[in-house]
Write a structure and sequence with these properties.
Elements (H helix, E strand, L loop, with lengths): L4 H10 L7 E4 L2 H10 L4 E5 L12 E4 L2 H11 L3 E2 L2 E2 L3 E4 L4 E12 L4 E7 L6 H7 L4 E6 L7 H11 L6 H13 L2 E12 L4 E3 L2 E5 L8 H4 L9 H7 L3 E4 L4 E5 L2 H13 L6 E4 L6 H12 L6 E8 L4 H15 L5 E7 L2 H11 L4 E3 L3 H18 L1
Parallel strand pairs: 14-16, 16-17, 17-18
Antiparallel strand pairs: 1-6, 2-3, 2-6, 4-5, 7-8, 7-10, 8-9, 10-11, 10-12, 13-15
Helix pairs in contact: 2-3, 5-6, 10-11, 11-12
Length: 380
Amino acid sequence: MDLYEHQARELFEEHGIVVPRAEVTDSPERARGIARALGGRAVVKAQVKTGGRGKAGGVRLVADPAEAEEAARHILGMDIKGHRVRSVMLAEPCEIEREFYVSYVLDRASGGFLAIASADGGMEIEEVAARRPEAVARIPVDPAVGVPTATAVRIADAAGLPPQTVDTLVRLWDVLVREDALLVEVNPLVMTADGRIVALDGKVTLDDNARFRQSRRCDEPPASADSLESRAAARGLNYVKLDGEVGVIGNGAGLVMSTLDVVAGCGARPANFLDIGGGASARVMADGLSVVLSDPDVKSVLVNVFGGITACDAVADGIVRALEEVRPTKPLVVRLDGNNAARGRALLAARAHPLVEQAATMDGAARRAARLATAASAAV
């Protein structure tokens, strides 16, 4: 369960982490009043559960209350990666001296957690890791030990963070444990001109299994009712929106995660995680394809299914149904293997849709989907 930025900010504040003064509204007129209370200048930020808000025009620095009202009016109603903006947060601006990145994330492979930190904050951590991997420190955290001061000092030293960040690192771990979080991220964590350490932006993902303990945080406001995640959830689909251009559908979380890695290895970025499950019907396949194809960021779709409980002919039947219902304008690459794979391939071949092609292997399918997405992006 992802939280909105304003929810993460409130949570940080409750745990003693310094955050800017801020308030949320869904009214441009109210935004004017909030800016006035903040001293005139403010940062107006779209409240959506996705990244890339700044690039989409969803974050604006304003100089006075009138400009705040105008900015809020512009941002409210925007569509950012399939998320409709229904509220904005106005925050007090800071005089920034330095920017950092810090996070704690569940590491399923090790059965523990990973602290990720960098002295290069304020930008996508993936970009930093790709360009300068040495600038990103990754420190394993034993859940039984946690992050006492000594561990926080080690994390700060490894990432080149100043000693003033140590207390915040300790408190962020407290947030993760006490709030049943799987991810706690601050980007940027800043040092202000007067030496304060302030969390300017936050991302928190809570464990769905802890909803009974976190009900006040997990109450979903109307703002996300028309998001891709909500539409997928209404159909019982396990869907997560990502920041790429290749839509990914598979059966089984392990297979989908492997597919995401293979797509990334082919030079493309996955646009989503969508697991149709081990016993998915043709209806589920059609619903999943409908959600993925409705994402404006998707340039191509990769369907990677290994037939077991889910027979490949049922998946192929679902794809054929979806082609009639959705009428796609984006290419699909389908890889079927396992139970009833030959029959599934035959069904797709008989349909002979011009936008659907088949691949024999996962690697081959990923390479083809990546090429198609790259070509489509270049043509825009």
